[in-house]
Structures are given as C-alpha cells and as structure tokens.
Amino acid sequence: MKILQLMIINISHQILKTLPYWLIKFLSFPIGIIYFLITFRSSFRLYKRKDLFNNSGLFYNPLLVKINYTRYWLETLWLTNKNFKKYISPYIEIENQDFVNKLKKQYPGLIFALPHQGNWEFAIPIGNSISLNLLAVAEPLDNTYVLNWFKSLRESLGIEIIIGGKGQNTFDSLVEKLNSGKDICLLSDRSIKKSGVATEFFGQLAAFPKGPVALSFKTGVPIIPTTMIKTNRGYRLRFNKPFYVPYFENEATSIQYGLKTLSKSFEELLALDINDWHSIQPVWTSEY
C-alpha cells in the first residue's frame, strides 16, 4: 500500500507538471467540490466554524476552503523549478521586506512562523531570491516513501528539510542551525497529536505548538510571522511585524506571552483570506 501511494503521487506529478498553470487552477474547482462531498465529516466540522469567524467579521465558506486546499495540493504536485519560473515568479509580490533586511544585519539566522495558508511551497524560491538560507521541519509520516518524496521536492526548490518527531532532538538541532546562519521556517498554527499549549485564537482556546516561541526565547532571535497568499494575478509573500519573546517571571510565562502575540499576528494574516487557510484538522480544543 505504501509503495502504491508513492506510485500514485509520482504518476500525478508526471502528468500535472506538463499542464499550464491556468488548467491547474481550473481543475481545483471540480476536484475540490468532489473532495468536499466525499469528506462530509470534516466539511461538517468546518461549517461549525462559520459562527466563530462571522463574529470576527470574516466571511467563511467551507466549500471554498476545500477548493483552495485542493488547489494547494494540485499546485504542489505540479510544481517544478521550471514551472515556477515560467508561471509564478513573474507575478510575485513581497510585502514588508524591510523587516527582514534590517534583522538580517543583526542576526545570522531568522525565525519565520507561518500558518497553513496559501501555498508555502511557493515561498521557498522567493525566499532564496531575497538571500534567505532556508530550513524547515517536516512532520513525520507513517509512509516514509511519501515523506522522502516531498522532502526531495522541497529540497529541489532550495530549502533544507529535517524530519521532526520523537527521538530526533529537533529543538537543539534548530538552535545550532539558527546560530550557523539558517533561516528557520515553522508552520505554527496547530499542534499535531492533539497536544500543545492552550492559546486564545479567534476568541477560543486552541492548542498551539510552542516550537517557534521557545526557539526565540532560547536564542533571543525575533519571530517574523509570514504567509504566502493568493492575489488576482499570482501570490504575495507577506512579512508581519517581528516580535521578541522577552523574559518574564519564568520560562513558561514568557512562552505563553509569545504564543499570545503570535496568535494575534496569525489572526491578522488569516483575515487577509480566511478561506485560504488549509486547516482541515481540529484546531480548537472544542473540536477534539
């Protein structure tokens, strides 16, 4: 079964990478609608979030969320360096790059915290174009064949990937990498395996991973909340205002404060296009 999954991904990649980008965007609609219908349980859970976002003045459409999620996967399976340069690179905008340029003069490596929004794979070659030396942590998968396929894809775009999980000593490795000049990118809007630190997020408690905040607290390097969202023509890489994690009465309090600040910044980024937030899994404690 694991080999079969890899074969399906490989075949899909070989077919999709030959298609023009407009067709990839078009296909996301019929395939996304089918995905929405056959995954009705998670679609129903997304409908329960409508009131939460409506109270924040955001129009949340679960069907559009599934379509955008489908588009993300089609884009990722379509993605090659050649396709990116031809179809995506000419239509990229970068917002608030000055934040990055100033901090790069002070620190060898920076910490970027991202929500699962837009297409973060597209941010890799753009980050390289502004002289970032990128590294990210991949979630461990049961299927190591598939894990290695996506690891190779991302590394071909210009980012170092290390695999997280138990027994990997990931945190210490990140501290070392950061001090050596790597710019660390961490998807940070949900914690896997129903664990994390209780953090207020859109007015309800969510389980947030403490990784980026703990890394910032340990090293003194500020966090730059970042996202890659769609525009009418292409994509925009946006850097939000960086923040430090100062020391309060103890480490736990400091990390809690840092997570609160990160949560508020993520709310601002997600409000740019809440329907392009690919959070299909439970996020808030009420959803578990």
The number of domains is 1
| Parts with pLDDT < 50 across at least 5 consecutive residues | none
Q: Report the count of strand segments.
A: 9
Morphology: globular
Summarize the amount of helix as a percent range. Answer: 40-55%
H-E string:
HHHHHHEHEHEHEHEEEHEEH
Number of helices: 12
Taking all Cα atoms into account, the compactness measure Rg is 19 Å
Instruction: Report the mean per-residue pLDDT as an integer.
Output: 93
Structure classification: alpha/beta
Percentage of residues in strands: 15-25%
- For this structure, the quaternary state is single chain
Characterization of the model:
With 288 residues, the chain is α/β, with parallel strands linked by helices. It has one domain. The chain contains 12 helices and 9 strands. The chain is globular. The two termini are 29 Å apart.
How are the elements arranged and paired?
Elements: H1 2-16, H2 21-38, H3 40-47, H4 50-54, H5 62-78, H6 81-88, E1 92-95, H7 97-104, E2 111-114, H8 123-129, E3 134-138, H9 144-157, E4 160-163, H10 170-179, E5 183-187, E6 197-201, E7 204-208, H11 211-219, E8 223-230, E9 235-239, H12 251-270
Parallel strand pairs: 1-9, 2-5, 2-8, 3-4, 3-5
Antiparallel strand pairs: 6-7, 8-9
Helix pairs in contact: 1-9, 2-5, 10-11
